[in-house]
What does this fold into?
Amino acid sequence: MNSAVPWALSHTQVAIEVVATLSFALSGVIEGARKKLDAVGICVVAGLAAFGGGTVRDVLLDRRPIFWMQHAIWVWVLLALCIGAMVFMRARHLEPTERAMQWPDALGLGLFTAGGAQIALDAQMPAIIAVILGMVTAVFGGVLRDIVCNEIPRVFSDHRPYAICAFVGGWTLVGLQGLALPPWLTLLGAAAVATLLRAAALVWDWRLPRWQAGSGP
Amino acid sequence: MNSAVPWALSHTQVAIEVVATLSFALSGVIEGARKKLDAVGICVVAGLAAFGGGTVRDVLLDRRPIFWMQHAIWVWVLLALCIGAMVFMRARHLEPTERAMQWPDALGLGLFTAGGAQIALDAQMPAIIAVILGMVTAVFGGVLRDIVCNEIPRVFSDHRPYAICAFVGGWTLVGLQGLALPPWLTLLGAAAVATLLRAAALVWDWRLPRWQAGSGP
Amino acid sequence: MNSAVPWALSHTQVAIEVVATLSFALSGVIEGARKKLDAVGICVVAGLAAFGGGTVRDVLLDRRPIFWMQHAIWVWVLLALCIGAMVFMRARHLEPTERAMQWPDALGLGLFTAGGAQIALDAQMPAIIAVILGMVTAVFGGVLRDIVCNEIPRVFSDHRPYAICAFVGGWTLVGLQGLALPPWLTLLGAAAVATLLRAAALVWDWRLPRWQAGSGP
It folds into this structure.
């Protein structure tokens, strides 16, 4: 392995975190605005949505400093995003923005999953744990956002495939790992699988099977 | 102290975590099904109920790897339990299952308390902190389950003794520690006290004292 | 720098944590009583309100043992406070107590902010992260209290300046740090700014700007 590969890997991972973080932050702004939080609340919910999943992953893995504490620039970017959204976005923008956000959000889902699972594999975790930590990275930001907004997390209750796409993407990463591909290709492949699966679920309106409550008396 | 004692202690602790974990996971499946979560949500809530308390304890003590990340087999067991429950359990089973679950849950309460408090004592924590971490281990899985399901945690609001049984069990462990008994006996004694106290509370329908709201004007 | 300065700094920091902790604990007792939690629930909510912010800060910074696990005396003080409040406080006391609590709470806000931000600076965090960790220390106890009580955290939704006072106080600490003042003076200066700002917000009933929902169609 030459020295360019860790470099490319490290840059791919940083780029992954940037795109996904901003796309998740905006989901927090929208949810906070809907719940009529004040300016501080909106920033905090955006921060939880953007950084929450990665933070839970880093705490579980005991990885320090936590990424947003190390690259403080992203806290500034988050603040700018929130203030910009609060100044320029009007209430009537919320619903169309949320619909438009589905696509960068699907991208974030794939990228966070692949990045998170890779970090867990690098920390010598077994495959199933890496897959779960990839899911945690992708999904727990939204979970924390919804908990603070006093909702049952949408990802657990809307019966649409979301975390399950991350689950499949995580296993893709584990599988590709075995092929000794260049690390960036492994990452992008896994991210693509999760993202495309989520996009397909959106386009064809897939549903998860319901609990078989109907078969009771 | 001969070398058999740490062996027995370590096996007792592993056995403790297994039985209690499965019994708590099923409480998560039931709560998730009641809230009409989708399949992914049910698995996550079951996972929080089963692993949440121990995870919070390990994070507070800075103990890594966290037990379910080290023994990944238990994640597989959890997944199998959730899928099995979703396939075989019908809505009309929920209430009788929950009533039947009270007894393994009381067992889990005792075992988690004793195991968690012992781990804290091993980490040189003072007695009161060990007792609290035993309670956290036993109780916080259910707390996280209820928070995600958007309920006030039942353990804090149903006015029945639950955490308080863990509290007494924890102090029992601290007291037995002073008697220089074999470690497995100390563990089982403390677990038995907490479990029997909980069972007595269920059988005789004990209530915690209410806040003296009635004495206001 | 002579050896008296670290001594004074360490004592100032301990005193900071004591006063602020008790004042926050009482807010948890009141909120728990309002939600009709049982005795255990009230103690846990008081503990979350008092220790939650500092615990989240310590976990994010990987600082162990967590302060309340190291100084176990404060757990005893918390228990005594909760039991005392439950015995002596009546339902009709809740509202007047809460109004009276605004002032020690403002003090706690300032002290926790300054203490938390200082700890983050000591851990070599960049300025913006130290400010955020100061806010987390001051604010997340109340956030956890409200999440467990199944409310949207008041600090994010009541449109009154609270976290923003911590934000300004945090930046004051960072600014004073540059002046090479004695550490205790830096701490007290930053705490005073946050506390006075909060007090002014209470006295003149300041409001945060609302989301511009009215400008939609």
